[in-house]
Amino acid sequence: MKPSHLVIGLMSGTSLDGVDAALVEITGSGESTRIQVKHFVSVPFANDVQAELLRVASQTPVPAQVISHLNFLLATLYTEAIAQLCQEAGIELNQVDLIGSHGQTIFHQSEPAAFCGRMLASTLQIGEGSLLAGNTGVTTISDFRPRDMAAGGKGAPLIPYVDYLLFRDDRLGRVLLNVGGIANITSLPASAEMEQVKAFDTGPGNMVIDALVRRFTNEEKTYDANGSIAAGGQVIAPLLEKLLAHPFFSADPPKTAGREQFGEAFVRQMLEHSKTARFEDLVCTATELTARSVAAAVTRFVLPATRVQQLIVSGGGARNAFLMQRLQVAVTGIKVVTSDDLGVPTAAKEAIGFAILANETLHLHAGNVPGATGARYPAVLGKVVYGDNYKRLRGIE
Amino acid sequence: MKPSHLVIGLMSGTSLDGVDAALVEITGSGESTRIQVKHFVSVPFANDVQAELLRVASQTPVPAQVISHLNFLLATLYTEAIAQLCQEAGIELNQVDLIGSHGQTIFHQSEPAAFCGRMLASTLQIGEGSLLAGNTGVTTISDFRPRDMAAGGKGAPLIPYVDYLLFRDDRLGRVLLNVGGIANITSLPASAEMEQVKAFDTGPGNMVIDALVRRFTNEEKTYDANGSIAAGGQVIAPLLEKLLAHPFFSADPPKTAGREQFGEAFVRQMLEHSKTARFEDLVCTATELTARSVAAAVTRFVLPATRVQQLIVSGGGARNAFLMQRLQVAVTGIKVVTSDDLGVPTAAKEAIGFAILANETLHLHAGNVPGATGARYPAVLGKVVYGDNYKRLRGIE
Questions:
Q1: Beta-strand pair A98-101/A4-11
Q2: How many CB atoms lie within 10 A of CB B268?
Q3: A238 pairs with which residues across the strands?
Q4: C-alpha angle B300/B302/B303, rounded to 5°?
Q5: A54 to chain B: closest CA residue
Q6: How would you classify residue A202: left for phi > 0, otherwise alpha for psi between -120 and 50, otherwise beta?
Q7: How far is CA A214 from each of CA A19, A128, A207, rounded to the nearest angstrom?
Q8: Spatial distance between the Cα atoms of A235 and A241, rounded to a whole number of angstroms
Q9: Which of A59, A127, A155, B251 is surrounded by the fewest CB atoms within 10 Å?
Q10: Pairs of residues, one from chain A and one from chain B, whose beta carbons lie less than 8 Å apart
Q11: Phi, psi of B122, deg, nearest 5
């Protein structure tokens, strides 16, 4: 196989706001992985697509055909994002070796529940890998979560493997924090072995903040740019206390969160508790909830086992100055930085991650961290669909 | 790679009655493929599973979580069928090299329709390949249709490639007919090249018959065993004429049919047309509809281009003696036989087919026939998920 590959990573997260696409040159694999980020684009979904995704992800009943069509539609939109990425980067699609795509999660339940007389956990990602491979001609690896669940894991988080490859340090204990719709952390003790890596979701990232902003601005704004709304408000202490009492926060990791815990019902509960509260106070409280739940997770579940010098933030939340400030206050004694400071663009980190995970599968390496997902064993993740380039890729012509 | 592989093929069809599993030793690949069928089991779904599948496939609105759970549930049931297959065959799972699984189709629309402002065709199969690979430890290739659709095809039928490998003859022109819920034919002219293979759905197979039997026996019977109900009835000629006027039958191939055309709505239309008709006359008419629509398809779309000596029947319909008799009457001049007569068990043919298609993908061969699906090019089908045996399979240890 070639020593280096040009790989596109795609991520569309629980915030349902669009797709991130990163073009990465990856040299080697496993612990010898080296990356060079060539370009990154973030392409928002049109309003009607976002509304349809939100409807489905909120578990509104729909005919199977809606999910079938959305699966193909997302792959079409991903294809367009890839075209834009390549054009802006000045490369042709046929130079790309591989695509890694997380897909859009429309349901994720990592704890078994009763269904047709059996106990079942399950997860469902859409964004058809076969259509991506067909549209682009590039071999595509997609839908990484189910293979981890089949290994007894919770199917998430998957980025910890990437964190381990990119951010482990000989001397510094580090915690990686990604603030998307949901927030998750990866703990990397100084000179960590894979077996020492722990990771889990800490709770809401931007999900609750965004939902409040959308609601109170009648969808005119979709997020709290730079935290300026929250900065003008005050924390509603009794509400914050009540929210922090959610059993998710005290549950032992590994654990995963989603719209199921922190979606519409959670926001409704906030509004009912504080019926006359000011908009900016609610947003401030939601922002504090994110900061405090992250800090509590670090204190409860990381610090007892290892020393931590740096908290490295990525995802949309890294651009929220008020949140960053509250985080630094909440995690006293740990330096809060962004992944930009370490050379990995914050917004692109998860998309880069799925490029790296695809490269691992291409090299037949496992991509899950059992200490992060709870899997019984490391498994080669994802589903490989061959594009026209498969012979070149597999070195048989 | 090893010269021969032990492969399990899985098929659960539009009749929603269970899963067929075939254990096949496959030597070589492509035109040199030789098979030995080791064992076959057909495992019915429990009533509650079947009801849930029917609900979803009938496009009753459901939350995404139902589809997510069904996707994992089916893989669990497939795993149990595989365990039974291996036990009866006296082999261990770790002797199996590969699994090929079609999955359960819960939506299939091969003609583009408007969705979120775009024209989209799409297809959705469930029966999670990652869970099969995890549960069994065997590398699994599943979900073959979408890659053909990504190549511009209708995603079905896919068995024609297998028909070509197993049944082409130097001297005889052959038509393969599979009668499942839907009936489809593959035309193989004498000494055919792949480019000469044509295949398409002819319309209902057992779907309409089964629906009538279920309805009139209050679900006590689910099919017309050996055609004995139909044999006691008479064709309602005006109704038959009306049904044969359905535009699907005269549409040019390639074409695919499903529950969308010949499901509940179609049966309701029959009952409304003949409100006082006797049960056995309706079943007889539905059986004649299958026979006559197959014969019409052969006459209209096959015979103008090639001579045909044999019609080789497989699928559940091959066990319906009355249907076989009506078929022989309808296709005068062509000898009607079953695939059993040529060494391939009728009930197992489609499951065997997906074992062979998986073997083709393992060898990086395309598995679709453009003349059957309408695809612009032959594509390597399916999604590869690695089981614990991946190193042995890929020959890297």
A1: parallel
A2: 12
A3: none
A4: 80
A5: B64
A6: alpha
A7: 19, 29, 11
A8: 10
A9: B251
A10: 182
A11: -160, 165
Look at A52 and B116 and tell me if their CB atoms are within 8 Å. Answer: yes
Of A135, A383, A385, the CB nearest to B130: A383
Q: How many CB atoms lie within 10 A of CB B213?
A: 23
> Which residues of chain A neighbour B65 with C-beta distances below 8 Å?
59, 107, 109, 122, 124
Which residue reads 């610090």 in tokens?
A303
Q: Please answer whether residues B209 and B305 qualify as being in contact, where contact means their C-beta atoms are separated by less than 8 angstroms.
A: no
Strand order in the sheet with A182-188: A198-204, A182-188, A174-179, A310-314, A335-338
CB-CB contact of A382 with A144 (8 Å): yes
- Calculate how close chain A gets to B49, using CA atoms only, in Å: 6
CB neighbour class for A279 (10 Å; exposed up to 12, middle 13-18, buried from 19): middle
Q: With contact defined as beta carbons under 8 Å apart, do B6 and B100 qualify?
A: no
The answer to whether the Cβ–Cβ distance between A386 and B364 falls below 8 Å is yes
**Contact across the interface for A62 and B60, Cβ inside 8 Å:** no
Picking from A65, A99, A140 by the largest number of B CB atoms within 10 A of its own CB, the best residue to mutate is A65
| ipTM value for the complex | 0.89
d(CA B16, CA A311): 52
pLDDT values of chain B reduced to their tens digit, one per residue, 397 residues: 889 999 999 999 877 889 999 999 999 999 999 999 999 999 999 999 999 999 999 999 999 999 999 999 999 999 999 999 999 999 999 999 999 999 999 999 998 999 999 999 999 999 999 999 999 999 999 999 999 999 999 998 899 999 999 999 999 999 999 999 999 999 999 999 999 999 999 999 999 999 999 999 999 999 999 999 999 999 999 999 999 999 999 999 888 888 889 999 999 999 999 899 999 999 999 999 999 999 999 999 999 999 999 999 999 999 999 999 999 999 999 999 999 999 899 989 999 999 999 999 999 999 999 989 999 999 999 999 999 999 889 876 5
Instruction: Choose the mutation target among A124, A139, A365 for the interface with B, i.e. most B CBs under 10 Å.
Output: A124
B154 CA: distance to closest CA in chain A (Å): 13
Q: The tokens of A68 are what?
A: 């079938």
Say yes or no for a CB contact (<8 Å) between B130 and A46. no
User: At A205, which amino acid appears?
Assistant: G
Inspect the interface and report whether the beta carbons of A64 and B62 lie closer than 8 Å: yes
Please name the amino acid found at residue B378: P
Report the distance separating Cα B392 and Cα B97, nearest Å.
9
Which residue type does A16 have?
Answer: L
Q: Tell me how crowded residue B251 is: count the other CB atoms within 10 A of its CB.
A: 12
DSSP assignment of A167-205: H--SS--EEEEEESSEEEEEEE-TT--GGG-EEEEEEES
CB contact under 8 A, A65 and B122: yes
3-class secondary structure, A98: strand
List CB contacts (< 8 A) between A151 and chain B.
134
Residues of A in contact with B63 (CB under 8 A): 59-62, 107
DSSP state of B123: E
Angle at B290 between CA B285 and CA B296, to 5 degrees: 115
